[in-house]
Amino acid sequence: MKFYRSECVYHSQMESILQKSRVDVNEDIFLKDPFSSDLGRGIITNSIEMMIELGFENFTFKKLSTKIGCTESAVYRYFENKHKLLLYLTSWYWGYVQQNLIFGTANMADPRRKLEIAIRILVHGPIFTKNDFIDPLALRRLLTDEATKAIMTKEVDEEYQKGFFNHYHKLGERIAEIILEINPRFQFPKTLVSTVMESSMMQSYYSRHLPGLTEHQPGDEKRIDFFNQLVFKTIENEN
């Protein structure tokens, strides 16, 4: 996707704003705001690194506390368990992606252009990659492998009712509205968007771990071409 000069200037301005932006996460997910202390920040930063290295199953608060240099009970003051910690990171990621979409398409009139940007963000992750609170690229890498473990649980219905997935939900609704700008008669905008949201993450996972299931390599621009064709042809074929 080409960016014109004026867009590049705007991109730089927005990146500066989003670098200082923080995502509001549902307060029922955590016990104490992790960004209220240096220890809390250390919990977030090191948990992302350790989950990437060890995987969610092998990650424990005991291992985390050893790396940080605090007691295990200190970690539990912030999060009830590692599932809630993963929910926090998942919610933060999708909230930040939504901010990327809002700022990346602000003052943009052409809905097709907005949808192209939305697809790029879903397929390759945030276009604004600097943030003072969490490394968006590291978080994207983690959630490519582990995000489904935050929702594929017996508690998902209760957690949905509590609003734990609101950022994910609102992002899907926002993109669905863009689709309806292009074709108001399209019947399944949310279904199409949620399909792309999930399958784009899975294609990233396949390219890294199960390459026989995809033609694309990690970071391959052709993956965006595939999803652009999938979305736009689906929308345009329903008249």
Which SSEs are present, and which pair or pack?
Elements lengths: L4 H15 L18 H17 L6 H8 L3 H5 L5 H23 L6 H14 L11 H11 L1 H4 L4 H6 L4 H17 L6 H21 L12 H15 L3
Keywords: DNA-binding
Pfam families: TetR_N (PF00440)
Protein name: TetR family transcriptional regulator
Extract low-pLDDT stretches. none
Q: What best-fitting shape do the alpha-carbon axes yield?
A: globular
Biggest beta-sheet profile = none
SS-derived structural category: mainly alpha
Helix content: 55-70%
Mean of residue pLDDT values: 93
Counting copies of identical and different chains, the oligomeric state is single chain
Our Rg estimate from Cα atoms comes to: 19 Å
β content, as a range?
Answer: under 5%
N-C termini distance: 27 Å
How many separate helices? 12
Order of helices and strands: HHHHHHHHHHHH
How many β-strands, per DSSP? 0
